[in-house]
């Protein structure tokens, strides 16, 4: 049995790996216990319940994704920043589908406020500075970008774009070009 070395951090990472392999909805303490060949009861000294495990995985995913996006957009502005930002999200969703799903797990307000989710919002607003948007257009743009990026990643992961001869990558570039044009069109003179 692999009991030695269990910790909340190790269990969180194993849960994140399980999410990528089987889907975030399949992450439970029972599944995690099977992974370590231990009884579920032995996990309760490290985690309160499946909700805590899922919250910890969500926080890990938000942090990883924020780091990846920050690295991608560093030193970029305007359309270059938008493209790098969007591609970092899509790349993460493709490489870590379960973690990506976890990054959208509903957190309680206090946990969300202390999470890397705040960095995501700040980075989104930072790339929008290159488009000179004022409020409420900036808030609308944040929501539009999130909707497009997450929606595209979800549809692509579900095979929603595999029923046509047009490559998903072509549509992705077209979509980002269209977003850039829409944002430039809304810019405050």
TrEMBL record:
- Supply the source organism for this entry: Planotetraspora mira
Q: What is this protein called in UniProt?
A: Transcriptional regulator
Q: Which residues form the HTH tetR-type domain?
A: 5-65
Give yes or no: UniProt keyword rRNA-binding: no
Q: Which domain of life is it from?
A: Bacteria
Does the record bear DNA-binding in its keywords? Answer: yes
| Molecular-function GO term, any one | DNA binding
Residue range(s) of DNA binding per entry: 28-47
Q: Keyword set for this entry?
A: DNA-binding, Transcription, Transcription regulation
């Amino acid at each position: 049995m692999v009991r030695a070395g269990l910790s909340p951090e190790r269990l969180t990472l194993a849960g994140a790996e399980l999410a990528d392999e089987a889907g975030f909805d399949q992450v439970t303490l029972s599944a995690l216990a099977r992974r370590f060949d231990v009884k579920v009861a032995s996990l309760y000294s490290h985690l309160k319940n499946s909700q805590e495990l899922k919250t910890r995985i969500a926080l890990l995913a938000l942090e990883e994704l924020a780091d990846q996006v920050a690295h991608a957009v560093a030193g970029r502005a305007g359309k270059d920043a938008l493209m790098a930002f969007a591609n970092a999200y899509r790349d993460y969703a493709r490489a870590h589908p379960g973690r990506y799903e976890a990054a959208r797990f509903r957190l309680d307000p206090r946990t969300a406020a202390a999470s890397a989710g705040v960095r995501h919002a700040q980075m989104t607003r930072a790339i929008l500075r290159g488009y000179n948007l004022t409020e409420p257009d900036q808030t609308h743009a944040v929501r539009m970008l999130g909707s497009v990026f997450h929606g595209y990643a979800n549809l692509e992961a579900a095979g929603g774009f595999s029923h046509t001869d047009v490559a998903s990558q072509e549509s992705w570039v077209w979509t980002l070009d269209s977003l850039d044009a829409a944002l430039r069109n809304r810019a405050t003179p």
